[in-house]
Amino acid sequence: SREELKNRVEKLGYEISQDYQGRELHLVGVLNGAFMFIADLARHLRIPCQICFLQASSYKDKQVSTGEVILMHNLDLSGKDVLVVEDIFDTGLTLKHIKEDLKMQKPASLEICTLLNKRIQDKIDIYVKYIGFEIEDRFVVGYGLDYAEKFRELPYISCLD
Ligand code: IMP
Q1: How many Å apart are CA 45 and CA 11, to the nearest integer?
Q2: Are the beta carbons of 73 and 54 closer than 8 angstroms?
Q3: For each successive 10 residues of the chain (161 residues), what is the average pLDDT?
Q4: pLDDT on residue 104
Q5: Ligand 1 centroid distance, CA of 147 (Å)
Q6: 30, 61, 110, 116: which has the highest count of C-beta atoms within 10 A?
Q7: What is residue 122's predicted lDDT score, i.e. its pLDDT?
Q8: Does ligand 1 have an atom closer than 6 angstroms to the CB of 54?
Q9: Pairing mode, if any, of strands 49-57 and 70-72?
Q10: Ligand 1, atom 20: closest residue by C-alpha
Q11: What pLDDT score does 59 carry?
């Protein structure tokens, strides 16, 4: 619900602020799905941060991954403390690509924060430092998440089926 999201994102913001105290954090939001999450999360940080974005797409109006991830960005993260902010960790394919891509820029640190972690079998094993909610294997929309570009505007998260 709206309330649960608000409370959890506030707690994540607090936790991240504690962990990165005395450092400047570079939040890298994964478009399009993470736009609402990163906006709310940033408002709960108590440390200086910079906010930038990269675009990742792997779903083409379908509910299953196409297996192909396309990344687009113009980032320079060398020597920075980087936190990738993602909407949902499903198979892990997207985050695997993002991690490999950003690592090449040699950031000082590179961690991941995902709002949702879907419980599925055969996930790619990636360490995700911050997780908002564990969810079952259902297709969800709202709070930035879409189905064929629809429902992103919902202030809560809902199952599509
Ligand atoms: P992965 O590469 O399989 O981990 O998928 C990650 C991306 O797929 C996310 O960034 C979402 O854009 C999309 N995705 C995965 N599951 C869902 C869902 O349940 N609803 C909406 N988008 C999803």
Answers
A1: 10
A2: yes
A3: 98 98 97 97 97 84 70 95 97 94 97 97 94 97 96 97 81
A4: 96
A5: 10
A6: 30
A7: 87
A8: no
A9: antiparallel
A10: 140
A11: 57
- Give the pLDDT score at 61: 57
For residues 129 and 97, what is the distance between their CA atoms, to the nearest angstrom? 17
- The two tokens of residue 48 are 């200086």
β-bridge partners, 110: 82
Find all residues with CB under 8 Å of 116, minimum gap 6, and list them.
Answer: 87, 88, 89, 131, 132, 133, 134, 135, 140, 145, 157
| Amino acid in the structure at residue 54 | L
Cα 89 vs. chain centroid, distance in angstroms? Answer: 8
Length of the chain: 161
